[in-house]
Amino acid sequence: MSINWFKYSSPASFYSLAGKITPIFAFAAVILLVAGLYIGFFVAPTDFQQGEAYRIIFIHVPAAWMSMFLYVVMAFWAGIGLAFNTRLSSMFATAIAPTGAMFTFIALWTGALWGKPMWGTWWVWDARLTSELILLFLYIGFMSLQAAIDDPRRADKAGAIIALVGVVNIPIIYFSVQWWNTLHQGASVSVNQAPSMATTMLVGMLVMVFASWMYSIAVILKRTRVIILERESHTAWVAELQKKGTVQ
Amino acid sequence: MLMWIIKRDLLLAMRRQSDVFTILFFFIIVVSLFPLSVGPEMNMLRTMAPGVVWVAALLASMLSLGRMFSNDYVDGTLEQMLLSPQSLSLLVLGKALAHWLVTGIPLVLMAPILGIQYDLPIEALFVLTITLLLGTPVLSLIGAIGAALTLGLRGGGVLVSLLVLPLYIPVLIFGAGAVEANMAGVGYDAHLSLIGAFLLMSLVFAPWAAASSLRVSLE
Amino acid sequence: MNWSNLSEFFSMGGYGFYVWGSYVVTLVCIVGEILLISNRHRTLEKQHGLIFDINRKRDNK
Questions:
Q1: Residue A222 touches partner C, C-beta closer than 8 Å
Q2: Tally of domains within chain B
Q3: pLDDT digit string, tens, across residues A182-211
Q4: pLDDT tens column, A18-70
Q5: Residue of A158, A166, A179 with shortest CB distance to B216
Q6: According to the 3-state scheme, what is the secondary structure of chain A?
Q7: Cβ distance A110 to A116 under 8 Å?
Q8: Fewest CB atoms less than 10 Å from the CB: which of A96, A201, B106, B172?
Q9: In this structure, are residues B28 and B22 in contact, taking their beta carbons and an 8 Å threshold?
């Protein structure tokens, strides 16, 4: 039984597939979110050191992980789109960028709000926070480059190149920021040792991480469908969809 | 082949001398602005000097990135270059080195003089010049990728800086860090070797990436 | 159960502003993102609907 890998690589079939599985992921995201928040707020004990402020971890850490993970996934699909000239992969990369940028912003925002009670200042030039900020610049660079180019094909390819160049630079930026941070150690307080995690805290955080995964998949699939519709509006199968009046 | 393209670009650049000087004056003005804003207090200026000079060099070299390919793009020679049997990466490497010679070298020569303005000790001036000498080619090479990607786009100039600045950060950190380490009496050779590593990496990868960007832009 | 009554829950051991500040902004971002996409989807439908009507009228003629 040979698996037809390319069955869903055409925008038309992917469109219907995404239409079916998006609600499943959305539903899973809601369930996990509620469970995670419940564990986070009602089961996890008060932290002896940080009091209640540590509960921000339940969105700060998932957002930070998601922002980095989504950039790598975006670069992967952009690379596939560039190499195999498959339009759908580039559409997928374009769809991932806004969600990744949003998670980066959330990670920075919650990091600052968590830093205020813990370190006394809104912004600390901690190595990870600084790399997160640079990651936000990379996302914005990718999105603005794609927005500046009218022809979608060229936008995909140009975006793919800047995403691949970016993903090669992420470890370099991270380690140079790390080195820079230890170089000026006196100037800032850095949180290297993760707070000792009670099991329930850890479980709460992991559930939230999975919730953010499900949420990202659902939102990215939904945005991919919108991009497909935008780009394929001239095709027959979209006109077919109109006749049935089901553009959902 | 490489020499031909460098000579050609230098010739073109020499015809319009004003471009070279505008970038140099931009560098001088930006560096001189900081004492006016921060105050003449010498200790403050001395600690700020490496960062200010490096950021000014970064911005100055970025100013002229837009013009690296656009003149040839407008009059069609860039397309001829794409069609030529020569490898496009070599051509792009030539253009990036020509851009470095036109913009990078003047900055390197001017940096020590501006360093004196910030009362930097002699050895720190020497380190500043060396790091700039090694760092500015990296700026031109990575900048070539940005210039190739934003070819012919409206508002391309601003977009290049948005694309390329995050990629300049490692060179900036170790460039300014080397001078600061030297002033603090700590050895700066680790920083220097890392900048050298960035230079080698960008010499290998940047032309290839910029060449593929050119092919994408000119499709 | 860590909290006896609601007001204690919102005060969050004195860190209420920070904890709820971050959770509210996250909620706004997520809901905002979802609304943006569905809005984009709806405008596309309207747009396609219009084009489709125009084509239909032309074909009927």
A1: yes
A2: 1
A3: 766 544 444 444 555 677 888 888 999 999
A4: 888 999 999 999 999 999 988 888 887 777 777 778 888 889 999 999 999 99
A5: A158
A6: CCCCHHHHHCHHHHHHHHHHHHHHHHHHHHHHHHHHHHHHHHHCCCECCCECHHHHHHHHHHHHHHHHHHHHHHHHHHHHHHHHCCHHHHHHHHHHHHHHHHHHHHHHHHHHHHHHHHHCCCCCCCHHHHHHHHHHHHHHHHHHHHHHCCCHHHHHHHHHHHHHHHHHHHHHHHHHHHHHHHHCHHHCCCCCCCCCCCHHHHHHHHHHHHHHHHHHHHHHHHHHHHHHHHHCCCCHHHHHHHHHCCCC
A7: no
A8: B106
A9: no
Please report the residues numbered 25 through 84 in chain A whose beta carbons come closer than 8 angstroms to any beta carbon of chain C: 41-42, 45-46, 51-53, 55-56, 59-60, 63
Beta bridge partners of A47: A51
Q: Do B163 and A172 touch (CB under 8 A)?
A: no
Distance between the two ends of chain B, CA-based, in angstroms?
A: 24
**CA–CA dist A247, A239 (Å, integer):** 10
Instruction: Give chain A positions within 8 Å (CB) of C31.
Output: none
State how far the Cα of C43 lies from the Cα of C45, in Å rounded to an integer. 5
- Those residues whose C-beta lies under 8 Å from the C-beta of residue B21, and which sit 6 or more positions away, are none
Q: Do C and B touch (≥3 CB pairs < 8 Å)? A: no
Interchain pair C51, A233: CB under 8 A: yes
Give the mean pLDDT per block of 10 residues along chain C (61 residues).
75 82 92 92 80 70 64
Q: Which domain holds residue B98?
A: 2-218
Full-prediction pTM beyond 0.95? no
Cβ A86 vs Cβ A80: under 8 Å: yes
Type of residue found at A232: E
Whether A233 and C14 lie within 8 Å, measured CB to CB: no
Query: A64 to chain B, minimum CA–CA distance in Å?
Result: 18
Q: Would you say the ipTM is above 0.85?
A: yes
A56 with C19: CB under 8 angstroms? yes
Question: Which residues are paired to C4 by β-bridges?
Answer: none
φ, ψ for residue A124, nearest 5 deg: -120, 135
Residue B86 CB partners (closer than 8 Å, separation 6+): B1
CA distance C41 to chain A (A): 6
